[in-house]
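Good morning,

Attaching, inline, the backbone tokens for the sequence recovery test we're adding to the shared suite. The designed sequence is right after.
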């Protein structure tokens, strides 16, 4: 089978297509033939920087990707035999861009309802719910979301309708129309639209641009920043980096929400499995317009 591997820190063009044996199904495992995989910015960061994430999966060579959708083609004797031929979403932070992935963790495997398509499921990310929890905990009634048109931002915005706070989704000027079209009921701002001063606010930072955070900090007296994109020390005093923990119940909830149409999946461009490098370059060179997917 083909696996797409990061072998160094020289970026996208150093990725290698490697032929490997198909994993043998283990007694605790199910073998999944992959069909759709998301192209994620975290891979781009990892391909250039060994300290790009807080995860412990950084040894090279490593198979890229963290999740994907496929069909179960073999089931180990200790797993539920009814899983055979089921369409599933799986989490595999140790690498998902292979024709076949062996899943041995039932908490990271989700059978998909018929009404959730492969493409919709492949966009799933639970990081939005990490930010939502932080927003719910905050006593501040003003919430700014930078990078609101991102895949994570779109999932977050759709889940904030139960939160009784004033939301300011912030985007770059070229992304305003896209987010307005995708979520027409939500008012969208660029940072220069924000004219007033605020006593207090929380910023859910998805864009990771310190210039935008500086502009906001000049307008907010009591500011706290929760970032999923900046891990390093910085000039902001009330600042916290948060990350997702691949929690089973969160993904189960998201799949149910896709199935009952309370969530809409942002699906972007779709590439062929021979074009993974092109897909990653497309992600790098373009504004976010839904999750870029690769079909295996
Ligand atoms: N902490 C965690 O657990 C975790 C997990 C997953 C992902 N992440 C990180 O979260 C971020 C968002 O992920 P995603 O998949 O939602 O990405 P995405 O859909 O590609 O969106 C990226 C967002 O960042 C904005 N952006 C990028 N560079 C910018 C800049 N220089 N100035 C202003 N805005 C900028 C983009 O704006 P435009 O579209 O207008 O360019 C877009 O809104 C990534 O940095 C990713 O690595 C963190």
């Amino acid at each position: 089978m083909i696996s797409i591997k990061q072998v160094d820190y020289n970026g996208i063009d150093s990725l290698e297509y490697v032929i490997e044996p198909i994993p043998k199904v283990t007694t605790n495992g199910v073998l999944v033939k992959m069909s759709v995989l998301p192209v994620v910015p975290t891979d781009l960061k990892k391909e250039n920087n060994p300290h790009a994430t807080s995860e412990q999966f950084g040894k090279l060579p490593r198979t890229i990707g963290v999740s994907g959708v496929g069909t179960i083609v073999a089931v180990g004797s200790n797993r539920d035999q009814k899983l055979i031929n089921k369409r599933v979403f799986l989490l595999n932070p140790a690498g998902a861009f292979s024709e076949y992935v062996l899943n041995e963790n039932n908490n990271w495997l989700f059978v998909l309802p018929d009404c959730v398509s492969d493409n919709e499921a492949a966009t799933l990310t639970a990081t939005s719910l990490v930010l939502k929890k932080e927003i719910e905990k905050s006593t501040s009634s003003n919430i700014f979301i930078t990078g609101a048109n991102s895949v994570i931002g779109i999932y977050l915005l759709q889940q904030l309708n139960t939160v009784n706070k004033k939301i300011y989704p912030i985007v770059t000027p070229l992304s305003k129309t896209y987010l307005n079209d995708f979520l027409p009921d939500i008012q969208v701002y660029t940072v220069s639209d924000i004219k007033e001063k605020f006593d207090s606010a929380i910023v859910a930072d998805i864009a990771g641009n310190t210039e935008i955070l500086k502009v906001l900090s000049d307008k907010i007296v009591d500011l706290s920043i929760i970032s999923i994109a900046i891990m390093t020390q910085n000039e902001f005093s009330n600042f916290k980096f948060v990350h997702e923990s691949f929690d089973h119940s969160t993904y189960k909830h998201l799949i149910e929400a896709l199935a009952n149409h309370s969530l809409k999946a942002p699906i972007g461009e779709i590439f062929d499995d021979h074009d993974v490098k092109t897909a990653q370059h497309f992600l790098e060179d373009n504004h976010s317009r839904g999750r870029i997917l690769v079909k295996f």
